[in-house]
Fold this protein.
Amino acid sequence: MQTIVLLGLVGLLAQLVDGSLGMAYGVTSTTLLLFIGTNPAAASATVHLAEIGTTLASGVSHWRLGNVDWKVVRRIALPGAIGSFAGATVLSSLSTEAAEPVMSGILLALGVYILVRFTAWGTPRGNLGKPVRRRFLAPLGLLGGFVDATGGGGWGPVGTPALLASGRMEPRKVIGSIDTSEFIVALAASLGFLIGLGSAGINFAWAAALLVGGVIAAPIAAWIVRHFPPRVLGSAVGGLIVLTNTRTIIRSDLLGEVPGGVQIAVYVVLYLVWAAAIAWSVRAHLADRRLHAEAAAPAAGTEGAEAPEPAPAATDTATGTGDSPRIEARD
């Protein structure tokens, strides 16, 4: 029972992150599952099974709000499903000893990306432009799906920034289309894990706990988006993912036996970088807020100022026009 409650909290935390940043549900939840000692393939399978429910709910919500570009969904979802099915098959065939550092390495790279992305540039933004081409979406879907399945997450971190960087979609439609297509990706990954691991390799109670936690967190995440700066949250979550997966890699057999002094030095450096990143993001957020306040102040002052009284109109002696009526002489 204690494990189920813990997994519910993991799902809640992961959904808080994903709902606030538009990415990182899989990365966060898989990282935390590995941290509590879950088998890598089982962790990814459990997360993707839970994502079938969360992405379906998210996709329906985005569809109702008009945030989905169905052409993009059709063009990226099928390659993403192929990539995720292949990734699930590859991960299922690896031994636990080999899979753990591989998954942690992918998660570490994604964590570094999230940390740098939000610390240096803040919330990703895009601009309207031409339609996104199939020759761009197909390889993106294959790569994103493969990384998502083998790393236990990555569809959002791979797909969302790439579409935003293309400059051809509104940010809301990028997030809506990526979230909606992720339902197909999660479904294909779950099928691949079922074939590779069998139903015995997936803990359905754990998946249900993650799903329930995510559903509970959804409205809270919406509140966080309105009140908590995404830039700061991105730096905080990115640093957490980097630290956790660095710990997993150091303790694996991939690097051999790492001396205790070296481990301490690595952790100290990472903690300092993490603290500096959060401090930088807080400072940048406050600076942006000041700029917005200064830009809004003149507009508010103009709206609140009283309009000046019009000057009296001058009387035209030739035509008699003006504020005072002309008095004509009579014979």
About this structure: Residues 26 and 112 are 15 Å apart (CA to CA).
